[in-house]
Design brief:
Elements: E1 16-17, H1 20-28, E2 32-39, E3 42-53, E4 56-62, H2 66-72, E5 76-89, E6 97-108, E7 110-111, H3 115-129, H4 142-146, E8 148-154, E9 157-163, E10 181-184
Antiparallel strand pairs: 1-9, 2-3, 2-5, 3-4, 4-8, 5-6, 5-10, 6-9, 7-8
Length: about 210
Amino acid sequence: MTQKADTNFKREAKRGSHDFKLACQVLDAGKICHVGFTIDDQPYVVPMAYARQGNQLLIHGSVASRLVNSLASGLRCCVTVTHFDGLVYARSTFNSSMNYRSTMVFGTARLIDDPDEKRKSIQALVDHLMPGRRADLRKSTIKELNATSLLSLPIETFSTKCRTGPPSDSKSDMDAPVWAGVVPFELTAGEPVDSPDLLPGTVRPDYL
């Protein structure tokens, strides 16, 4: 895919990639993105729920959202998704680091206003955020659909950066009697908490 100058890697270029499959892997592993944009010279960064549908990034918001309305008008944006995978303990402060995966997507989003496309896109969002849940839910009403906004951002101009592995210590530090290594971090689901107003006999679904 053709990449623009704003996706060039200035530092640690060996960690960078413009591979579409790798970008999709990073995007598919997350549920929250951060959307950056500028209005009247004031930058904003807003956390949003999202999903990937093919080569499109779906961003969910309210019809009253300034972000949604601004982006729907053609304002360019940058969407980032980052996963923190570990603290890298080197033998010096300078060489200490983090293991991570991060993708940035640049472009202009469009508002999804076709009812059929909107319903299918919301289904894709639910399937990404809560796999298996959609079969248990009632159909969205027209009023609910009208109160929900979805933006579609093409995954065309993007960049991905990842760091993995142990510390990269300086040769002069290798004899220091200091522990070095990686402390992994993982995001895991906890035990489900029942709503206090569940009907008697309601069981937890297996997909939880």
